Amino acid sequence: MTMRRRLVVGNWKMHGLCAQSAALARGVREGARALAHAQGSRAAEIVLCPPFTQLSNVHRLLVDHTEQAVEPAGEGASGQVRLGAQDCHVGSFGAYTGDVSAAMLADTGASHVILGHSERRLGHGEIDSLVRDKAASAMEAGLTPIICLGETQKERDSGQATARVSSQIMRSVPDGFSGVIAYEPIWAIGTGAAATLDDIVAIAAPIRSALREHLGPAGDGVRLLYGGSVTPKEAPGILALDAIDGVLVGGASLQIEKFLAIAEAAGQA
Ligand code: PGA
Question: Which residue has better confidence, 118 or 4?
Answer without folding.
Answer: 118
